[in-house]
Specification:
The chain contains three helices and 14 strands. The chain is mainly beta. It has a single domain, classed as Outer membrane phospholipase (ompla), Chain C, CATH 2.40.230.10.
C-alpha cells in the first residue's frame, strides 16, 4: 500500500508542476502576448520571456515526447512476461519556453531555452488496469531556428524507469534501475510549408544498469502537416513516421507511425490531436526495453 501511495503522490506532483509552469494566456484585450512578454535590453538583441511557441518542435511520432495524452493499445505481439494484450497508456507533461533571444537585425533568427517534464505509464486492462511500469522524464532544450526552415537543438535528457507495484507482486520481477541521462543533438528542416524531416543522435553519459545499457541512440523521421484545414472547416490532418535505434538493443529498428486529425486552439497556443498509432519496437517503458512489442492504438493528445 505504501508503494502505491508513493506512486500516486509522484503523479500528483507532476500535475502540479504542469499547472505552475504551463504558460498562462493573458485575458488583457488589445495587447498582443508578444508585446507583454518582450524586452529590448540593448540595441542588438530582443528578449522574450515565456515564449508560447517552440523553435524546435517535438517529434509527432515520438510517443515519449512531453505532452498530455491518453491511448488505448492492442498488442499483437509482446515479449514482456505476464503482461496483457490490451492496455491504457497515459502521458502527463509538457514543455515550457523560458527565454527567447533574437538579433534585431535578423528577427527571423532566434535562440530559445526550454524546460520539460513528464510522466509516462502503461496499465494492463487484462489485469484490472494494474500498472506495468512508468517512466519519469525531465530535461532542458536549447534550440536555434531561422526563416529558411532549418532548426537545431541541443538537449539534456533524463529518464528514470520503474516497475509497477502490482506487476512486482504478481511476477516477482525486480527493478533493473534503468536510468538514462544523455546529451542529444538534433537537426530539423521544414519544406514546402507542410513537410518536415529530422535526425538526432544522443550519447548517454550516465546509465543506471551498466550490464544492459549502452551509450548511443540515433533517431530520424518524416512528418506531414499542412496548414490548410480540411474542407475549409476547423480540423486539420497530420502523418508522421519515427525511426529510432539504440546501441543497447543491437541497433534493432523501432518503427512508429502516427496519423490523424488536429484541432488547433490558437488562442491558447494548444493543438489537440486524435489519431491511429502503429508501433513495432522495444517497449516504451525503460525497465522493459530489452523486450520488443508490436501494437496498434488510438491516441488523444493535447500538445503543451
Amino acid at each position: 500500500m505504501r508503494r502505491k501511495t508513493d506512486l500516486a503522490a509522484k503523479v500528483i506532483l507532476i500535475c502540479i508542476w504542469m499547472l505552475i509552469f504551463t504558460r498562462p494566456v493573458s485575458g488583457e484585450p488589445g495587447k498582443p502576448d508578444e508585446d507583454r512578454w518582450t524586452f529590448t535590453p540593448g540595441e542588438s538583441w530582443r528578449l522574450s520571456v515565456a515564449p508560447p511557441e517552440r523553435l524546435y518542435s517535438p517529434y509527432l511520432a515520438d510517443l515519449r515526447r512531453p505532452t498530455m495524452s491518453m491511448a488505448y493499445m492492442h498488442l499483437t505481439d509482446s515479449e514482456i512476461p505476464d503482461a496483457g494484450n490490451d492496455r491504457f497508456a497515459f502521458m502527463l507533461g509538457g514543455q515550457y519556453g523560458l527565454l527567447r533571444a533574437s538579433p534585431r537585425a535578423f528577427p527571423g533568427s532566434a535562440f530559445q531555452l526550454d524546460l520539460y517534464g513528464s510522466f509516462y505509464g502503461q496499465f494492463d486492462i487484462d489485469s484490472s488496469t494494474d500498472n506495468i511500469g512508468w517512466d519519469g522524464f525531465y530535461g532542458a532544450v536549447l534550440s536555434r531556428a531561422n526563416d529558411s526552415g532549418f532548426a537545431a537543438r541541443l538537449a539534456l535528457n533524463h529518464d528514470s524507469s520503474h516497475i509497477g507495484d502490482e506487476y512486482i507482486e504478481e511476477t516477482g520481477r525486480l527493478r533493473l534501475n534503468y536510468t538514462r541521462e544523455e546529451i542529444a543533438g538534433g537537426l530539423s528542416y521544414h519544406f514546402k510549408d507542410r513537410y518536415r524531416i529530422y535526425s538526432e543522435a544522443a550519447y548517454a553519459y550516465h546509465a543506471g544498469d551498466n550490464e544492459f545499457q549502452e551509450p548511443w541512440r540515433v533517431q530520424g523521421g518524416l512528418e506531414y502537416e499542412p496548414a490548410e484545414r480540411l474542407w475549409g472547416g476547423p480540423l486539420g490532418c497530420f502523418a508522421a513516421l519515427d525511426l529510432t535505434a539504440y546501441e543497447e538493443n543491437d541497433w534493432d529498428l523501432d518503427i512508429t507511425a502516427h496519423v490523424g486529425l488536429t484541432a488547433p486552439f490558437e488562442y491558447a497556443f494548444r493543438t489537440a490531436r486524435m489519431g491511429l498509432v502503429y508501433r513495432k519496437g522495444r517497449s516504451l517503458i525503460g525497465e522493459f526495453s530489452m523486450h520488443r512489442e508490436e501494437w496498434w492504438g488510438l491516441r488523444l493528445t493535447m500538445d503543451l
